[in-house]
Amino acid sequence: MVFLGSGNMNSEGHLEIGDVDTVDLAKEFGTPLYVYDVAKIREQATAYLSTFKKRNVTAKVAYASKAFSCIAMVQLMQQEGLHLDVVSGGELFTALQAGFPATHIHFHGNNKSIEELTAAVEEGVGSIVVDNFYELDCLKSIGESLNRVIPIQLRITPGIEAHTHEYILTGQEDSKFGFDLISKQADQALHEALSSSYIDMMGIHCHIGSQIFESDGFVMAIRKIFDLLEDWSESFGYEARVVNLGGGFGIAYTTNDKKISIEEMMNVVVDEVQDQVAEKSLAMPEIWIEPGRSIVGEAGTTLYTVGSEKRIPGVRNYLAVDGGMTDNLRPALYQAKYEAVIANRLSQKNTQTVSIAGKCCESGDMLIQEVSLPKTSQGDILAMFCTGAYGYSMANNYNRLPRPAVVFVEEGEAQLVVERETYRDLVHLDRPLKKTVVTSF
């Protein structure tokens, strides 16, 4: 039996990940439970690095920690030789707590606070991706007050509409991110950056979207970037040391998703950059990319315990689990599709089509609209594949549900890397009313 993401069937007919029985994991750590196949994460990270190495191209691969961030995950990325992309003070703090070198951190975000920017500069992050004129002004002031030269990249919106969900398009002209090309905002930003002795203008950044399966969008973006760099070379005498193409590389959530390999995608990127450099007689820049989902997405599986069942003849059969939109918001937010199996019944034939419902008090809390499964009973373990990206990182406490635990599995060993929240955790920041009013009925 072949599974999306990670896993195989063991001799007991159970789903096994990283040589660990998922039924045993559910018993030991409870459900819902995020399970990460560490070997799969390492494999994806290596695929990016090795492609650039084979092509003898200077490049940096930065893991986009918004996909999934915790101390153990950050440390794993350091082990694999990746840089790190953070988008908030919290992600930066997590990285530093993990011992990640600040010089290998790139700081993103469209509304970084003065406090966040100051902390990033004081810690010595390797690059700040500047999203707007407000940030640029703040950094010039911070640089002057701290007497620091701050390395930056300017984020542009190249006007490319990648083939993806409209909610996760970020490279088109009408976007909250980056400097616009048509209105010449990018030119003005470059002029202001070069005019400050406290700014080191490393290069240019763009991000055209997420969950992208075709290379065409990246080719078009690279051409737009190098048209701009050619103009900047002629008008400002500026040559970029770095061209950062962001991330957005898609994964297969279902058997209908047809992705291309990391090596194939990166080879297209390298070919186009080299062609543009030669055509426009520019210096070859470093190529930076920021994959997140494609590194952790397929490595993650969420385990749930099956609970109630509701059958509506001729309409739908609901199967409810002990999680939902609190541990995976993507189906409700993006109408994202997933596939699943009953982890303790892999050897049994599928005999029914059901809809997987979450336990939140929302009719839209549906994890999977239709999936074929064998006969199920209360207490069975449902495994939903490819939940490694934007599951835990978007998890929430709606209905005051505690967030699940996270476990890493590798070579037959399971390690708890994030503890399950308790009910006490849910109220530890609450404060009672100062004045109590007793009402009689």
Q: How many structural units, i.e. domains?
A: 2
Compute the separation of the termini in Å. 63 Å
Q: Which strand-content bin applies to the residues?
A: 15-25%
Structural class by helix and strand composition: alpha/beta
Please give the radius of gyration in angstroms.
24 Å
DSSP strand count: 21
Mean pLDDT across all residues, rounded? 94
CATH topology tier name of the largest domain: TIM Barrel
Please identify, by name, the CATH architecture of the largest domain: Alpha-Beta Barrel
**CATH level-1 class of the largest domain:** Alpha Beta
Poorly predicted regions: none
EC number: 4.1.1.20
Function: Specifically catalyzes the decarboxylation of meso-diaminopimelate (meso-DAP) to L-lysine.
Protein name: Diaminopimelate decarboxylase
Family: Belongs to the Orn/Lys/Arg decarboxylase class-II family. LysA subfamily.
Task: Summarize this entry quickly.
The protein is of the alpha/beta class and 441 residues long. It has helices at 22-29, 38-54, 71-79, 89-97, 114-123, 133-146, 185-194, 216-236, 262-280, 293-296, 330-334, 423-427; strands at residues 8-9, 15-17, 20-21, 33-37, 59-64, 83-86, 105-107, 127-130, 150-157, 179-180, 199-205, 242-244, 286-289, 300-312, 316-321, 340-342, 352-357, 366-373, 381-385, 405-410, 413-418.
